[in-house]
Structure formats: structure tokens, C-alpha cells
Amino acid sequence: MLAILCVPGEGLAANGQSEREIFYEEARRLLASQRSETAYSMLSSRELDYAGREGFDYLLGVAALDSGRPGEAIFAFQRLLAVRPDFAGARLDYARAYYQIGDYERARIEFEKVLSADPPGQIRTTVDTYLAAIAEGAAVRGPGNFQTYFDFASGYDSNPAAATDEELFLNFRLDPRNLEQSSAFAMSTLGVAWTSSISETAALMFNGRLDHRSNMSAHFVDTTNIDLGAAWSWMPNSNTFTLAANVLHSGLDQRYHRRDLGLTAAWSYQLSDTWQLNAFGRAVNVTFDDEALAVRDSLQAMGGLGLAVRGTSSELSLSLFAGQDDPDQDTSPYTSDTEGLSLGYKQLIGGGSHFFLEASYIEADFDEPFFGFERTDDTVTASVGFVLANFPAPRWQSTMRFSSTQKDSTVMLYQFDRHELSLSFRRVFQ
After folding, report:
1. Contact 403, 419 (CB under 8 A)
2. What's the rounded Cα separation, in Å, for the pair 409 and 216?
3. Around Cβ 198, how many Cβ atoms within 10 Å?
4. Residue 189: strand pairing partners
């Protein structure tokens, strides 16, 4: 174990020092005896109490790293380095965590920061070994990392068809299938991903996903999706550039429905250990199988900017975006301009579990009138929930989510309310 089991002092008051120091000492003993899994379980159970304390974050990061959880280790070390950027031992393990997840460029940057602090000879030797492996490609040009996952969800949806509750439109009675109706639902997903680094700063990824959702009382909106994609990432210094392409085939009510061909370009810049700047652009060609829906065939484009910040036990993100929908048919009324914003918040609740809150607002203005009405749609969506790690068993993840959508439109036919409550379970295999 390369971690340095020397925890920095915290300047604690005498009436709180004894219990915590006994707890820390037990964690050190477990780590020193190579019982990292037990140490991680013990430490993560008190994460809600102690997250943000330098000693705790360091021990948790080491335990997570040595028990095969580099992603969780990164989160713990980020909290620590945000307040102690000169802590060389944490910086070294932070770099090791990035190395383990395959982000070799970010690992190289962090290893070089360790060297710039003129560390002792043993640490320098360790860092030199990692840097040599990165430079020579000894660890990055292997067969790649293959991962599969299975996800099952069930719940209740107040309006799976996203339909209006008004029975009459322009004095015509709407088909019952075009009206709001509730349903229980079940959904299953099978996904695969393969990632391989092709140099010390670049990687390739191929992924596939198959999912099906069944609505027990509204099978006419049952959906099946097959999504295949590929991506290339380049990570020079603190930047990450990604170019991705995908094809999505969708079915509706057991019939082929539409095909989406998408291209995405994204960029992120790590401003510091806690702040990140993001930008993206995406274009999608949408083609419907039903000739009656050809009026909606289009080229959709969208771009946006975002900012994310991580605190000691939380993460906050904000994105602004705008887009355009350009139909293939010149006479189509679906030409529109879109703009909006999204907000995300995540709060750690211990043991790798977290609470989340998401919200978005989208405004769409259509160039042509619908049924004689100028059309503007305003959509507000909010979701709240929590994710439990290692539940109901180790390596499983369960998510409880409640989401609500309200769409207002100047054309009554397109406005609706929708509320959904779901519980899902995911198992990842590597």
C-alpha cells in the first residue's frame, strides 16, 4: 500500500478529540493490516458525520482507493485538497486514483504537482515509476476495459403519453389515446461499454444500450430503444475534448418508430480541484418511419455552456443552452428556436450514497402557427431523489426518484402535467 498513513492534525477541541481519534486509529490499524474493505465500510458509515474533516477525508480516500473504488477516492481527495493543496500524500493518492480509472493525462498532471513539491526520495521513486508507465504506454495500451450493466425500474406515471387532459379541441372530441391517463410501468435496460486508451492523452469508447418500457394501462406508448455509439476523448493538461457519434433506433407500441443520428462535441476545463467549466454542441438528424409523421423529420442542433463546483460533500452545476429544430419539409410548422437552463445539486449522505435535485426550464418558439394559433411552449421539469450505494447488496445501486413536468402552451393541444415516481436497481459487472 503506497498511501502514507499519517493524518494531519485538525486542531480539535479536547471534548471531541477522544472518540474521533479512537475511530481514526482503528481505521489506520485496518489499513496497515491490508483490510481496506473493512476500513472502507467502517469509514463510509460515518461519512455524513465527518466528511470535510482533513483526517477523515484522507483515510476514506485511501480506503476507497485500496479497496478498488478509485472514483469515490477522487471525491474524498478533492475535498481534502480543496483546503490543503500542499498535502503531498493526498496529492499522490489523488494521482493514483486517476491512474486507476484510466484518466492518464490528469494522473500525469497530479504526479507532476507532487514532484514540484520536492518530495522525499521514496515518493519521488514511486511517482517516477508511474510517469514512466504513462510515457511508455505500459498501462494504457492494453486490451481495454469492458463493462456491462443491468438496470430494472418500476413505478407510477400519471401521464405516460404526455397528453392534454382537455377532451375537446376546436370543438372536436379527441381520441381517448390522446388524453391524459395514468399507468404503472416497468422498465429494463441492458448496457455494455468498452474503453481503451490509445495514447497517454487519448482514449476510445464504444457503447451499446437496449431498453424497454411497458406501461401496464397504456401499452400504446410502450417504448423500445437500441442505442449504439462511439466516442474519442483527448485530455491535454486540464482540458478534456470529446467527439461522439451515436445512432438510436426507437420503437413505439411494438412497431418501428424513428431513427436518430447524432454527433456531439464537448469540452471541459478543470479550473481548479473544485471548479470545472463545460461546453457542448450537438446535432441530430431525426427520421420517422411513419409517412404521416414525415412533417416532423428534421435536423436538430443545440449548444450550451455550464459550470460545476464541488464542495466538501456536495456538487452544484448550472448549464445554459439554446437550439434550433429545422424540419426537412419547408411547409412544416415544426420549425422552432429553443433556449433554456438546467440546475443540478448533489449532496453526499454517506457510504457513497447521495441525495440529488435537478431542475430545468425550456422555452420553444415556433415560426409557423398551429391551427391558426401562434405557438410558444414553456416546460418546467423538476426531479428529486436519492441513490443508495451497495444496496440491496454489494456492487448494487438503488435509486428512488420523483419527477414532475409542467408544459404550458399557447396551443391547448400541447400542454400537459406529468408526475412520475420510480424505484430502480442497477448492477454493474466489470
Report:
1. yes
2. 28
3. 15
4. 151, 211
Tell me the pLDDT tens digit for each residue of 297-308. Answer: 999 999 999 999
- Residues 263-283 have a mean pLDDT of 93
On the question of a cis peptide bond just before residue 392, with omega within 30 degrees of 0, the verdict is yes
> Nine-digit cell at 53?
474533516
The DSSP call for residue 9 is P
Q: Give me the amino acid identity at 404.
A: S
Q: Within its chain, how far is the Cα of 162 from the centroid?
A: 25
The residues spanned by each domain of the chain are: 14-136, 145-429
Multiple choice CATH, 145-429, 3.40.50.300, 2.40.160.60, 3.20.20.80, 2.140.10.10: 2.40.160.60
Q: Which residues are CB-contacts of 17 (< 8 A; sequence separation ≥ 6)? A: none
| Residues 380-412: tens digit of each pLDDT | 999 999 998 778 887 788 999 999 999 999 999
Q: Looking at domain 14-136, which CATH architecture does it have?
A: Alpha Horseshoe (1.25)
The reply to whether omega before 120 is within 30° of 0 (cis) is no
Strand, helix or coil at 54? Answer: helix
Alpha carbon 28 to its chain centroid, in Å, reads 32
Q: How far apart are CA 365 and CA 51, in angstroms?
A: 46
User: What phi and psi values does residue 37 have, to the nearest 5 degrees?
Assistant: -65, -45
